[in-house]
Amino acid sequence: MEEIPQNLVMDIHWIHDKTTFPHWKDIRQNIHVHSLYWIQEGEGVFQTDTEEHPVSPDMLFYLWPGLSMEMSSGGGEPLRITMILLSLYTLSPSADNQGRVEPLHALPLPFLLKPGREPGRQLSQLFRQIAGDFVPGNPGSQLKTQALLYELLYELFQAKDSANPDLGQGYELFLRMKEELERRYSEPLQIHELAVRYGISSSYVRSLFQQYLHKSPKGYLSEIRYEHAKKQLLYTRLTLKEIAAACGYSDEFHFSKAFKQLSGQPPSAMRSC
């Protein structure tokens, strides 16, 4: 699984629900931004410098900055395209809490994505909502649209992984267990309990996590608890005992030991920074 960019910041340039006409032709004008083209209706052809792609409904084209493309509609039903143009950046933490903004050169998305029938229906609705709600220059619309765009990117990353035939039949099961660990990190979860709940063996649970995340389920759960504990150390006045209980550790001793293994320092040292 490719890493989703952390601390992603976006600047919306334009969102447009474009209806073309038979035998329409155009080129990608804004090549210095990230563009998402969702095909709502019609048929046509998109052509880059290296390849020609037949276009039909429920297909996504992701165009990273610098990519040129020619577009055309056929003689039958013309294309209707929801177009989203963005500048994307990542915000890196810094010691002075000011952060450092760096341009994002590309998202971990393919040029062409063909999600399944149900994900495609959901994505189509989301693209329509984004295009319908966007009001340029309106601060309230800007905030709402950004929230929907973050949701859209998450759904696209999920659809990309689900559409990959190399992932195997256990991928959906892995996602459900992964999400359960993320949601129930504060509880005293045991891997064998997870296996029983999903009707599989503990060894199969471990093999799925190794296959798709390259980590053991126990190791992943430890990382989730560590990140939650780190935030509580930095932004609350809870005692170590209270943080241990809130983040799923059996006691303060096990919390301190696990925290030091991951950070190289005891939790008290981070709080004193």
Automatic annotation (TrEMBL):
InterPro entries cross-referenced by the UniProt entry: AraC-bd, AraC_XylS_family_regulators, Homeodomain-like_sf, HTH-like, HTH_AraC, RmlC-like_jellyroll
Highest taxon, organism lineage: Bacteria
Pfam annotation, one family: HTH_18
Key words of the record: DNA-binding, Transcription, Transcription regulation
UniProt protein name: AraC-like DNA-binding protein
HTH araC/xylS-type domain sequence ranges: 175-273
Alphabetized SUPFAM superfamilies for the sequence: Homeodomain-like (SSF46689), Regulatory protein AraC (SSF51215)
PANTHER family (UniProt xref): HTH-TYPE TRANSCRIPTIONAL ACTIVATOR RHAS-RELATED (PTHR46796)
